[in-house]
Amino acid sequence: MDTRKPTAGLSQACYGFAIEGTYKDCVPYGNGHINDTYLLTYQQNGQEHAYILQHMNKTIFTDPEALMENIIGVTGFLKEKIMAAGGNPQRETLDFVFTADGKPYYKDGFGEYWRTYHYIDHVYALDQVKDPEDFYQSALSFGRFQQMLADFPAETLHETIPNFHNTAVRFGNFEKAVAEDICGRAAGIQDEIQFVKQRFDLACALGNLQDQGKIPLRVTHNDTKSNNVLIDEATGKGLCVIDLDTVMPGLSVNDFGDSIRFGASTAAEDEKDLSKVSCSMELYEAYVKGFLEGCGGRLTEKEILSLPLGAKVMTYECGMRFLTDYLSGDTYFKIHRPEHNLDRARTQFKLVADMESKWEQMQAIVQKYIDQ
């Protein structure tokens, strides 16, 4: 691989969009697992204006043009809803900058794809939830995302990553990784492998409900970690849902579940000390309350009753994905130490076990908000 290409491509991308003014600076930004992100600064009329510039990962997102078609379609729809409600569409959803020839992406001389959008200032994201009010605001935001897009025709969106939350397919990938064991790691993680295999029923649970017509297909975010909501510094309220790469047809309960597995955990996603890892029922209830309020009555009763199952399935699926990547040589998620993906998998499995021990409580919390 020519390691000079990303640097050269970045230089081209800094000038690739129809941004008025003079280029000032471009520096790495954030800590995302998949795309490379930069803070791009231009000077316009004596003032500096900031943008987010991203190099889109073609290994993961094999059709960047279709991906951007999804994003522009959804953000355009959201802008109309936001304006109709008297909101600010430049701050409450991502506002993309196009190229001079009208495209929402720039293709550099090496065939790599880039995009840029206006930087939203005076906000913060939650890398780890510590405050139930913040988690409630995150839930409201993702619930409103569901509510505003309830009328968007989900079937018209491209599937940017095929079978992304098809947990049964993920299980098949996991079994293949175990069988091939290309890094010779399987022997040392038999407990984790058996944990996954013993819960095969979880891999099929939500797919069966969808196949039976019991829960509907919706426009979903599919990566609803709390750090994908920007919180307004001035008001402390959820402002904008970001990271829209995986917006595609899906299940509302998956969006709910991914939020719980990330945000209701009492420890970081890669915590090594598993004694610190549990699912906080206080945070779980705060999210249930906020998500249902944000959805504004657009979910069916079966979807609402399936929310606890969504939490358990998504936590199980994510742990399985981390373990699969560890077995396969860490080719998907960025790692910062040799057993990083294994540590991530173990935290997810600890959360699944904790949810199993609190299952009746999780169901009762959901029922409480149905009965209100």
Automatic annotation (TrEMBL):
It holds the Pfam family APH. Residues 26-263 form the Aminoglycoside phosphotransferase domain. This is Aminoglycoside phosphotransferase family protein.
